[in-house]
Every structure is written in C-alpha cells, then in structure tokens.
Amino acid sequence: MRYLTAGESHGPQLTAIIEGVPAGLELLAEDVNKELSRRQKGYGRGRRMQIEKDEAIISSGVRHGLTLGSPIALAVENKDFAHWTKIMGADPLDPDEDAEVKRKVTKPRPGHADLNGAIKYGHRDMRNVLERSSARETTVRVAAGAVAKKLLSELGITVAGHVLEIGGVKAENTAFHSIHQLKEITESSPVRCLDEAAGERMMKAIDDAKANGDSIGGVVEVIVEGMPVGVGSYVHYDLKLDAKIAAAIMSINAFKGAEIGIGFEAARRPGSQVHDEILWSEEDGYTRKTNNAGGFEGGMTTGMPIVVRGVMKPIPTLYKPLQSVDIETKEPFAASIERSDSCAVPAASVVAEAVVAWELAAAITSQFGRDNMEEIQENIRRHNEKTRTF
Ligand SMILES: Cc1cc2nc3c(=O)[nH]c(=O)nc-3n(C[C@H](O)[C@H](O)[C@H](O)COP(=O)(O)O)c2cc1C
Ligand SMILES: C=C(O[C@@H]1CC(C(=O)O)=C[C@@H](OP(=O)(O)O)[C@H]1O)C(=O)O
C-alpha cells in the first residue's frame, strides 16, 4: 500500500491517491469524515479550524460502499480558499498583476520550514514554501489513515491515540481497562487525555501560553491491540516495522522524537527489568508477563499491544515573535501574525493514530495478501491458529 498527497494549505483542495487497498473492504465517506472531524477538534487550535469543515469526496476506487482493489482518489476542500483566491491565484497558470497578489512573504519564522525551504527551492516568496509545509496536509494523511483503520478493524485490530503531556503537565492516571474504554474517555476530553484533572491543567497551560503570545508542545501515545505475531521482519533494515512506525511518527509536522515501549527509559534499567518474560497457555498461546518492548522484538510484532509515543515541539508561529531576518532587506524584524494554533497536540494524536495505522495496514497486506479482504482474513486466521500451538 502507498499513497501520495497533493495540495496547498490555502489552495482549493487537498488530494490523496491511495494505492494497494484490497478489494472488498466496506468503505463509506462517513468512515473517513469521522476521523477528519476528530482531527479538527482539540483545545488550543486557532481560528482556521472554525472556518474548515473537513469532508472527504471519494471519487474513485469504491463502488456501492466496497473498495474495488483499484486506486482510491480522495479530496478534501479548503473552505478558507474562498478568502485566498487572489493570493493563491484562482487560475494557477494566470499571472495576476494585482498588488496584493504580488506581496511577498519575506520574513521567515524560526522553527518553521520557511527559510530552508526558500533557499532550497529558490523561492523569494516564502508563501511558496509555507503553503505546502503547513500541517494542513495532515488532513489527507488522516483520510488515508482512516482507510487503513477501517481495514485493520475488519481484522480485529484496534488503534487508539491519546495525550500524555502538554506544556510540562503530565497525565498521572493513565490506567484503562480496555482499549475501547480508553477511546471512550479520551473522545470526550477536549485535550484527548485519560486523566481528567491533568486535562484541566493542560487546558490552563494552553490558555496561559496563548495569553503570553506563546505556544506549547507535548507527548502523544498510540496503542494498538490485535496485531498478529511476526509482522515485519529482522532480515532487512527496511523491513523492520518498528523503524517504519518511528519514521511515520517523525514525519508528522513538528514531531521531534519517537519511542516504542519503555523507549528511553530502557537506558536506565538492567536487562532483567527490561525484557518481557515469555509465557504459554493452551487458550492464549504465547504471551508476555510485561510489555516493556511495546509490541516489537527484532523489527517484528510480538502480538502484545503496540505502544508508541511521539514528542511534538511547540508551534513555531508565535504572537510573541522571535528574532529573525527579512530575506529582502537582511534587517532584523519583529513580525506580527494574523492567526495560529497555540497547541495542536490533541489534534496531532489523531494524526499519529492515522500514520501508525497506515504502516500496520501496509505491513499486513504485504504479508497476508493484497488482493481481497477475504483472502487476508483467511490467511490471518490460519497464521493465528498456527502461532498459538507453535
Ligand atoms: C495538527 C498540527 C497543527 C499545526 N499548526 C500549526 C500552526 O498553526 N502554526 C505553525 O506555525 N505550525 C503549526 N504546526 C507545526 C508546523 O507545521 C511545523 O512545525 C512545520 O511544518 C515545520 O516542520 P518541523 O517542525 O517538523 O521542522 C502544526 C502541526 C500539526 C501537526
Ligand atoms: C489548517 C490546518 O492547520 C494549520 C497548520 C499550520 C502550519 O503552519 O502547520 C498553520 C495554520 O494555518 P493558517 O495559517 O491557515 O491558520 C493551521 O491552521 C489544519 O490542521 O487543518
């Protein structure tokens, strides 16, 4: 499975072409829209989210609610384009002489892609960089992830993301009885946090950052239950599924770190307190006493829940500007900005779910069959049965 996205933040639409989804998967626009709406919620976002109402238009690859095995084309309209038609160029091939249209963005924001992107592509107008480097693109990544999640759910695999930390405020009570309970609780939290009291403090931290013209980041976690054992491989570096998951997390805008299982904590413990002891029972087959490995050994799934965390840095666009240099005048400046998110960690936890789901669905289809859902279901059923008594 693979996909490509196209689209600028303030252009007419975002597009994804999704390839390799097996035939026979039930898929409705509603399945995608549900995920798009989850990404739009979350405390700390700016005015843009009040303008957009993300909805998917699926124009190919699906008939009567079932995937065909052919490429799926999917688009999401940018409602904000209506306010940007002149600046973006209603007809991209028509050079417009309007002064407003010609006003260039020449002031790079520290922490964003503006300066490096301008130098790399030779753009004197950094709008040409920011339009595509914007996390608006995560909309269609969540759409592709929604397709992957649907595929996984048909195979009994559940993916849930939540927020562990925002601006230094940590969730203390992160216990849950089942992944479904985790989903239920976090869905009703404005910061997608299991710990209600910590969630309140996180919102306060976001309010404070906003009042100070600042921004804050945090930590998100994705948990996956139901993966078969042995997905991924140790035989080549580019088949290691834990590495692909880490890369997927790092590919999310503003993410600067990823860890699996106990992650960096493993550096501080002896092996006897890290490695998960192996058990076997007739009913459950092989299981582990603990899950410090977060569901992976040797680049392959262990069958235990996958536990992945990602670190998001604070949003770069600040109302309280940092020092920067105008690329035209080479003079320092203090920019005033129009709008920005103060914190997008809750939204990013939904993006993290999507990118993890995508990698898992891609690995499943490459191992258990690419053509149709029935074949994959049958192959996994046989694999699970063999694994239990292995
Ligand atoms: C959901 C989401 C929303 C974001 N919103 C903003 C924003 O409003 N303003 C901003 O400057 N950056 C925002 N970012 C972060 C930038 O897109 C990101 O920092 C930028 O693309 C540079 O890439 P890097 O931080 O990975 O180096 C957002 C990121 C995510 C995941
Ligand atoms: C539009 C989205 O996020 C945007 C990501 C973003 C950035 O620089 O990454 C900047 C902001 O865009 P704008 O400058 O238009 O307000 C965010 O709103 C979205 O998540 O759908």
TrEMBL record:
Binding of FMN, residues: 132-134, 253-254, 298, 313-317, 339
Keywords: Amino-acid biosynthesis, Aromatic amino acid biosynthesis, FAD, Flavoprotein, FMN, Lyase, NADP
Database matches in InterPro entries: Chorismate_synth (IPR000453), Chorismate_synth_AroC_sf (IPR035904), Chorismate_synthase_CS (IPR020541)
EC number: 4.2.3.5
Binding-site residues for NADP(+), renumbered to this chain: 39, 45
A GO MF term: chorismate synthase activity
Cofactor details (free text): Reduced FMN (FMNH(2)).
Keyword Cell inner membrane found: no
Family label: Belongs to the chorismate synthase family.
Role: This reaction introduces a second double bond into the aromatic ring system.
Subunit structure: Homotetramer.
The protein's name in its UniProt record: Chorismate synthase
Source organism (scientific name): Fictibacillus iocasae
